[in-house]
């Protein structure tokens, strides 16, 4: 059994301030005995326009934000899962990435968001992620960590159960959804979707979320959660920015996954519908 932590922050366009928020939580998570800490999507920055987002992006090797977290991981002997941007080929778009940094500070895995959030909701959010972001083209196979086998997905990917089912089929124990959900869609769908993904994959779901006002145009829903493979919310943070970053922790018990999967085997009818 090992402890996982979720960190809830409010990123702005100041990468240095965002790094300080994360580093503060890394220390707290390490003091709480956590083996890994999970941060939201776009922890490095949330920009107020597509142009600003592209101009702020740095390669992983040149990002002070990423390097700062690599140092924190090794100094605090903790693994870090964090969402960041990096420039895409051609210079007009960015990649929306999720990194695994091990407790020596090395980036060992990276996933590029598959599904981009293009919405035009009447009297609600209008966002066109595909204007500034290049979509990924593959599922990253789950990998072994101190907590168990981790499968990576990001934010809007949550709405496509195929990716979670594919990660489960490749033996994920824990599926991540670092996010920056909007308030109306968060209120309506966030917890239901997260619990559904945990229940249908019989896996832990770790969802670190951005919270509060990032700039004059963007506000995020918060409510970071860790959910058990039975679908219970084990840890949850609030929806308000209380002036500082916040942390929640939960124990990851791999034997509970084994028990649930044994007691209720979800045998798929792949003779009727395709295997994912
Ligand atoms: O733009 C960045 O830098 C960071 N990326 C995001 O905030 C992304 C794209 S705008 N947000 C979402 O996918 C929210 C999904 C959502 O709210 C839902 O599915 O309801």
TrEMBL record:
Keywords on this record? Cytoplasm, Hydrolase
* Signal peptide residue numbers: none
Sequence ranges assigned to domain CN hydrolase in this UniProt record: 1-254
Q: Which SUPFAM superfamilies match?
A: Carbon-nitrogen hydrolase
List the GO molecular function terms: hydrolase activity, acting on carbon-nitrogen (but not peptide) bonds, in linear amides
Q: Which Gene3D superfamilies match?
A: Carbon-nitrogen hydrolase (3.60.110.10)
Compartments, record wording: Cytoplasm
* GO cellular component: a single term: cytoplasm
Query: What Pfam families does this protein map onto?
Result: CN_hydrolase
Q: What family does the database annotate?
A: Belongs to the carbon-nitrogen hydrolase superfamily. NIT1/NIT2 family.
Name of the protein in question: Nitrilase
């Amino acid at each position: 059994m090992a402890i996982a932590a979720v960190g809830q922050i409010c990123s702005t366009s100041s990468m240095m301030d965002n790094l300080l928020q994360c580093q503060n939580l890394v220390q707290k998570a390490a003091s709480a005995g956590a083996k890994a800490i999970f941060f939201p999507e776009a922890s490095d920055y949330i920009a107020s326009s597509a142009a600003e987002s592209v101009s702020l992006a740095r390669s992983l090797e040149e990002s002070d934000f990423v390097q700062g977290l690599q140092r924190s991981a090794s100094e605090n002997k903790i693994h870090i899962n964090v969402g960041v941007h990096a420039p895409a080929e051609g210079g007009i778009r960015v990649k929306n990435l999720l990194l695994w940094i091990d407790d020596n500070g090395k980036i060992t895995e990276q996933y590029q968001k598959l599904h981009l959030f293009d919405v035009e909701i009447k009297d609600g959010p209008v966002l066109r992620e595909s204007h500034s972001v290049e979509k990924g083209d593959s599922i990253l196979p789950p990998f072994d960590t101190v907590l168990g086998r981790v499968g990576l997905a990001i934010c809007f990917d949550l709405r496509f159960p195929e990716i979670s089912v594919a990660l489960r089929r490749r033996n994920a124990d824990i599926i991540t959804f670092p996010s920056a959900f909007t308030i109306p869609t968060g209120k309506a769908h966030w917890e239901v979707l997260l619990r559904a993904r945990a229940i249908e994959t019989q896996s832990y779901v770790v969802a670190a979320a951005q919270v509060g006002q990032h700039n004059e145009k963007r506000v995020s829903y918060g409510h970071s959660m860790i959910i058990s493979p039975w679908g219970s919310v084990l840890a949850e943070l609030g929806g308000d920015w209380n002036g500082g970053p916040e942390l929640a922790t939960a124990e990851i018990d791999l034997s509970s996954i084994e028990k649930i999967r044994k007691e209720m085997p979800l045998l798929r009818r792949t003779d009727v519908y395709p295997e994912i």
